[in-house]
Amino acid sequence: MADQQVNERLADYSGYNPEMTPEKALALFEEARAAGCPVARSEQMGGFHILLDYDDVKKVSSDDAFSTEAGMFRPVVDRPPLPPTEYDEPEHTKWRDLFRLGVDAKTSDKIEPGVREDVVALIEGFAASGSCDLVRDFAVPVPLLAICRILGLDPARGAELRALTDDLMANLENPAGAAAAYGALAQFGVAEVENRRAEPRDDFMTSLANAEMDGRPLNENEIAQTMASLLSAGHETSTVLMTNMLHEVLSRPEVRAALIADPKLIPAAVEEVLRLHPPVMGLYRRMKETRDVNGVELAEGDDVLLCWAANNRDPAVFDAPNEFRLDRKRNRHLTFGWGTHACLGAPVARMEMRVGLEELLKRLPDIELTEPGKDYKFTNLEWVVIESLDATFAPRSA
Ligand code: HEM
């Protein structure tokens, strides 16, 4: 009975449902799991299954029956796929290899000194004023400048890139708008690629200029798709995570004090924020073949949400799953995905968070949020966000 009641309430689950908040959704997921319902069901957007169990999601993340070709977001919209994620094999591997030209195991170390310079310059930019909005003045520009470093773009073009990202994110669910957003990205990307063909450099845009797909140079659409993916996967996610991290750490005086006393604890704080507050609740798959998961039939054609936010609070894997613990051992959260589509940028994202927090707490240890403990909100595409973080501190000269 309890099972049936919680499933009825989860039938309304969607980030698009104005009645649903991230907090309510997490409480419902917890109730469903406790009621013995690890595969829940929403009837929103044509209906989809919600995988709440950590082990289930890990298992299905390398199963080709769970296809990404219909897109990783819902509702399904006619727009160019975001590579590599929105391709199944064998195309997925071709795209993933292309992305590895720009984001590999060495990228994080390579760009860290530059990211630190950017972070320090941003802090110095607002230090004298005694106040800032940590979203606008820090969480947005830090990852944006990091993406400029990866792509090899002049940081002065950061504002232009931000506008292209905003336009893309606002239009991923709107075919007409998406076509215009991809068109603008194509124009931007093709001009940069042509410039690198004339004057090669050591950057991702030069790799794209030289890259081949099926034995021919990349076409205009493929360049736009690559730009769109890097801006959504690499920039928007990191901005949201940086916001969540600053919000969580600065809303907890004891955590902030511990990190100032021992900055070596910062990576543990970053992992706890990743676990408890992933930038998206989860992403979708469509079944290419029928599978049984935990006794529930996921039939060919069904939609399925891999719900990382719920998996990361699975009590079978994490002790006291709702608590923020700096001493958590083996924090094996799924926020960077798992298996076939595991995030290529995870080391870069972790480095941006660590460097951001190291420099902010070192330079402005007295920084306080005007409104700690804010509520998270859903925006389009089930992103879980906080829109602004006003903060104050004693002004210092640069
Ligand atoms: C907080 C920051 C980030 C989070 C939470 C995040 C999360 C994810 C997740 C969950 C996936 C898997 C998608 C799926 O299974 O459907 C993914 C894939 C991917 N991410 Fe990230 N990401 C972040 C930052 C980055 C950055 C900075 C980059 C690049 C510089 C990046 C590049 C990619 C790429 C290329 C893929 C596609 C992998 C594939 O499909 O084979 N990500 N990311």
Topology at a glance:
Blueprint: H1 2-10, H2 22-34, E1 39-42, E2 48-51, H3 54-60, E3 66-67, H4 91-100, H5 107-127, E4 131-133, H6 134-139, H7 141-151, H8 158-171, H9 175-198, H10 204-210, E5 212-213, E6 216-217, H11 220-250, H12 253-261, H13 266-276, E7 283-287, E8 291-293, E9 296-298, E10 303-306, H14 308-311, H15 346-363, E11 368-369, E12 377-378, E13 384-385, E14 390-392
Parallel strand pairs: 2-10
Antiparallel strand pairs: 1-2, 3-7, 4-14, 5-6, 7-10, 8-9, 11-14, 12-13
Number of domains: 1
Known CATH architecture:
Orthogonal Bundle
Averaged pLDDT? 93
- How far apart are the termini? 63 Å
* Distinct helical segment count: 15
Describe, in plain words, how this protein is organized in 3D:
The chain has helices at 2-10, 22-34, 54-60, 91-100, 107-127, 134-139, 141-151, 158-171, 175-198, 204-210, 220-250, 253-261, 266-276, 308-311, 346-363, and strands at residues 39-42, 48-51, 66-67, 131-133, 212-213, 216-217, 283-287, 291-293, 296-298, 303-306, 368-369, 377-378, 384-385, 390-392. It contains 15 helices and 14 strands. The model has no long low-confidence stretch (mean pLDDT 93). Strand 8 and strand 9 form a beta hairpin. It has one domain: Cytochrome P450 (Cytochrome p450).
